[in-house]
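Readers of this paper often ask what the protein records in our data store actually look like. The remainder of this section carries one protein's record, kept here as part of the documentation.

:::
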Amino acid sequence: MKNEIIFNLIKVHQRIEDACKIAGRNPADVQLLLATKTVPAEKIRIAIQAGETLMGENKMQELRDKDYELKNLPVERHFIGHLQTNKVKDVLKYVTCIQSLDRLSLADELHKQLKNQNRTFRCFCSGQYFLRRK
């Protein structure tokens, strides 16, 4: 299992380097985010030990459970799926970025929680919803 994971990571990084070469980009400017949805912690641990540092989860419970199982490893977590407004406070405990800000009510709750914690936060907005609003 370990060799297969490492082999696959090497192949993905080679494809990134090849694509960057074609596009005239520096591969060091590209980050690989591993979507770890339903992936067991032991497999994620292998990827982290192989040098991967960016993981994405889309379920609060998995995020919490994997954070506990991998708590001493150097990994940055992003939330990558649909986020319910009532889960914002919990998600903020575990992630450094939300990649799925898709509605105003979620943005409002995120702003409220971050203001209470006196902190800022990175997020990616889905323009489709916000463009339709007047």
